[in-house]
DNA sequence: ACGGTGAACCAAGCGAATAT
DNA sequence: ATATTCGCTTGGTTCACCGT
């Protein structure tokens, strides 16, 4: 019932709501739930009650944690040039011996690992590493028939979100491969998926916590990071009431670009409606124009 | 037929927010 | 300050589906 695209979209929606402050301690408030249900309906034409999103959230988390079991506290992991886990058959056999669930990750990494890392990962996420994995095109073509043409919204969602924001962390950064961006998006998905998995593993194996806490530290000390233009833009895009390139949209961009105080005020409002009202007030434009 | 897998459901328990 | 309520987590189970 859940395709990879749908799962991915859902995870992305959760990140959106998180960004807007509609999720506290993994608990989505009423506005956030409504937004997720609505946007999902808009994108796929399927009405899904919130309960099912919760269940999906659970299963995704289970998958994510399963995968992390494989990589946690484990050194000496190897990768081939494409980023797939490249270890000897013996290595896999041993992993499987201590935990049978490991087998399935050998040839087929978990889909949407990039987003799961953001959603379930421990610490603050700021756009990160140029993730672009969209694992599972092959899987997806087998089932999943009727809504294939509707998923374009997800594509632009991705392209606007994957802008790397590698401030000060870049120096201590991880792998040589993490900076490549999405060329050949269509063709090399499998390769990218492998690469993504490699990135996750590398992050886990190396001192990821150190890096991320460093990030957190920076964010705490520099409010302009947490109220960055990027974040404001993301929130702006997530407002359903604002049509792309409508007068209000254009005016809002200018307003939000203008200075950090504007961004802070904008981001202060906890729900979509008040944000839109604020933008209308601040820019003098109407959403219906 | 069988085992693996993911979706769904359930029970217990916990944390946080709210009410008393 | 304490009690209540709510939703999520955790762990477990059942079921349907798929490939072997």
Automatic annotation (TrEMBL):
Short name of any one Pfam family annotated for the protein: Myb_DNA-bind_3
Domain Myb/SANT-like: start-end pairs: 1-94
Biased composition (Acidic residues): 148-157
Region called Disordered, residue ranges: 141-190
InterPro entries recorded: Myb/SANT-like_dom
PANTHER family reported in the protein's UniProt record: NO APICAL MERISTEM-ASSOCIATED C-TERMINAL DOMAIN-CONTAINING PROTEIN (PTHR47851:SF8), OS06G0588700 PROTEIN-RELATED (PTHR47851)
Protein name: (rape) hypothetical protein
Organism of provenance: Brassica napus
């Amino acid at each position: 019932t859940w395709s990879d695209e749908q799962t991915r979209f859902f995870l992305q929606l959760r990140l959106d709501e998180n960004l807007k402050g509609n999720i506290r301690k993994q608990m989505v408030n009423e506005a956030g739930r409504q937004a997720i249900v609505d946007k999902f309906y808009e994108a796929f034409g399927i009405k899904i009650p919130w309960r099912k999103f919760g269940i999906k959230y659970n299963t995704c988390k289970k998958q994510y944690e399963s995968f992390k079991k494989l990589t946690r506290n484990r050194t000496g992991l190897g990768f081939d040039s494409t980023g797939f886990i490249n270890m000897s058959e013996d290595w896999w056999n041993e992993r499987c011996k201590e935990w049978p669930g490991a087998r399935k990750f050998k040839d087929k990494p978990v889909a949407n690992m990039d987003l799961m890392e953001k959603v379930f990962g421990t610490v603050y996420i700021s756009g990160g590493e140029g993730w672009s994995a969209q694992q599972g095109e092959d899987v997806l073509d087998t089932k999943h028939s009727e809504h294939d043409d509707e998923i374009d919204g997800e594509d632009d969602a991705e392209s606007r979100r994957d802008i790397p924001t590698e401030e000060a962390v870049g120096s201590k950064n991880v792998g040589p491969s993490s900076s490549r961006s999405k060329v050949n998006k269509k063709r090399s998905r499998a390769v990218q998926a492998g690469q993504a998995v490699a990135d996750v593993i590398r992050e886990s194996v190396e001192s990821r916590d150190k890096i991320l806490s460093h990030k957190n530290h920076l964010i705490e000390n520099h409010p302009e990071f947490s109220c960055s233009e990027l974040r404001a833009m993301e929130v702006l895009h997530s407002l359903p009431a604002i049509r792309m390139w409508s007068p209000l949209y254009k005016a809002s961009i200018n307003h939000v670009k203008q200075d950090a105080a504007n961004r802070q005020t904008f981001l202060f409002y906890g729900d979509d409606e008040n944000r839109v009202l604020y933008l209308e007030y601040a820019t003098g434009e109407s959403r219906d124009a």
